[in-house]
Amino acid sequence: MDETKTLAPAVRSILRAADERAEPEGRVSVDGRSLTAAIEASDGTDRTPIIAEVKPTSPTTDGTRTGDPVAIAREMEAGGATALSVLTEPEHFGGSTDALERVRDAVEVPVLRKDFLQSEAQLDAVAADAVLLIARFVDDLPALLTGARDRGMEALVEVHSREELAAAIDAGATLVGVNNRDLATLEVELATFERVAPDAPEDVTLVAESGIANQADARRMRAAGADALLVGTAIMDGDVRDRTRELVAA
Ligand SMILES: O=C(O)c1ccccc1NCC(=O)[C@H](O)[C@H](O)COP(=O)(O)O
User: For an engineered disulfide with 157, which of 72, 129, 139, 168 has Cβ 3.0 to 4.6 Å away?
Assistant: First the structure.
């Protein structure tokens, strides 16, 4: 069966657009800031590591959020974010590689590139400290993991099920995000993280992604084993610095 048929139409459209984007020229080489180390730096403190996402829009967002990505990123950092996630997908998320470059120049924390990468060549579109690799969309995960590492970037491997987690671990992933959003329906269920997390080996750094709306959700994900939380909407749709600070204090 064609795997893409089980995806939401918006996700199929995202993947088609990614496929049609021109391949970057050249090869990036990054002296990356470690996302894993930044998360681990909160161990033994009362801070919740938050990866705050600069998210102009998305298929499930009404309208587009205006605001300079750099100004937003600075507010996130001032609110105590451990790292930032910047969308580089232009057509469905309003992101750009230019926004990521400008954000990375403006902040000191690690910056994750959030996109829908399917091939090694796409890693070269922009220098980031880490890249998201969605297990479900990548044919050869070990090759992409090696490709990212060879360029000096960490990889956050995103999974949505216990089977995908097992495949990610087999491929050598050490930084894993469990997406609470089902890319077949776009529904968000925090129970997804709770179902998948117990299968993760102790030495894997685990990130809970999507649908974390408030401090109660943040505490729920931490109780289920999240080492860090990736949050977009709840931060973007309020006072960015205050919302970040609240989640860091959860
Ligand atoms: O957010 C969407 O609408 C979306 C739709 C289709 C594929 C992916 C999508 N989101 C990507 C993300 O990973 C989220 O932006 C990220 O986890 C933050 O989620 P949230 O805090 O719920 O904004």
Answer: 168
